[in-house]
Write a sequence for this structure.
């Protein structure tokens, strides 16, 4: 009895291409996102280039004002450092809140050279009223920014902001 050799499978000349893995980028934001949503989105980006691109994509006056107040050493806050005694707005997001986009035009009241005619009590009252009208996450941003501590909670740096917004002139504001 002779055994028949098993046929060897023919090698195929067809090349199977591997499908590239899609990077898990953070999902895009809705139109006119809140500033805290933008900063959270920027923080989720994996590389400096992606963070800079996200800052460029979602640029708005409120975001730029916040970043200048935080990173420009010549912007001097007239608000006391530390926690602020205010009652956070507990309404659901998108209802019964104002936003930093709307309130950004009033931020000059709280920095040196903005509205130096206000007395301290009136300025602090206005500040607390503004915070109480904002979503708690937006209010938290203002509290961090007044103390120049935004980078402690959000993954955004001066270098990234400077690269994303080369048109900003840093310094000489107070």
């Amino acid at each position: 009895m002779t055994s028949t050799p098993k046929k060897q499978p023919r090698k195929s000349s067809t090349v199977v291409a591997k499908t590239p893995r899609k990077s898990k980028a953070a999902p895009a934001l809705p139109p006119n996102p809140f500033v805290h949503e933008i900063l959270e989105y920027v923080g989720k980006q994996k590389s400096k280039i992606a963070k800079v691109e996200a800052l460029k994509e979602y640029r708005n006056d409120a975001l730029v004002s916040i970043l200048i107040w935080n990173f420009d050493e010549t912007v001097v806050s007239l608000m006391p450092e530390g926690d602020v005694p205010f009652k956070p707005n507990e309404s659901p997001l998108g209802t019964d809140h104002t936003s930093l986009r709307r309130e950004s035009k009033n931020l000059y009241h709280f920095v040196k050279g903005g509205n130096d005619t206000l007395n301290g009590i009136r300025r602090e009252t206005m500040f607390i009223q503004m915070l109480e009208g904002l979503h708690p996450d937006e209010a938290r941003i203002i509290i961090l920014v007044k103390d120049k501590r935004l980078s402690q909670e959000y993954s955004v740096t001066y270098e990234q902001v400077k690269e994303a917004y080369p048109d900003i002139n840093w310094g000489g504001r107070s």
